[in-house]
Structure to design on (96 residues):
């Protein structure tokens, strides 16, 4: 399954186990995860600017990803966000 951006499949960790996975959410989470892979330690404001998503949308998706154990925050407000070990493991890492 691919998102609306040709050639950019959804990030494997964009799929949630506790929520319905709909295309807009998968697109948003893929953008957030890709940004955090390239530049760990971003704030919500920085993620919003880089991804083109609203700050509230970024916060919502980060909260969902945090519940899944894919990302975590550090420091005091404004928090900086990082991929966890689970978030860094991609399906391509497990190919034989």
């Amino acid at each position: 399954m691919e998102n609306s951006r040709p050639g950019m499949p959804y990030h494997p960790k964009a799929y949630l186990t506790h929520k319905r996975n709909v295309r807009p959410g998968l697109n948003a989470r893929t953008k957030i995860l890709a940004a955090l892979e390239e530049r760990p330690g971003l704030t919500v404001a920085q993620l919003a600017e880089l991804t083109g998503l609203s700050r509230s949308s970024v916060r919502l998706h980060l909260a969902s990803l945090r519940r899944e154990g894919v990302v975590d925050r550090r420091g005091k407000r404004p928090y900086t966000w990082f991929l966890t070990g689970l978030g860094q493991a991609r399906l391509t890492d497990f190919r034989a």
In short: The chain is about 45% helix and 10% strand. The helical segments are 23-38, 44-51, 55-67, 85-88. Confidence is low (pLDDT under 50) at residues 1-5.
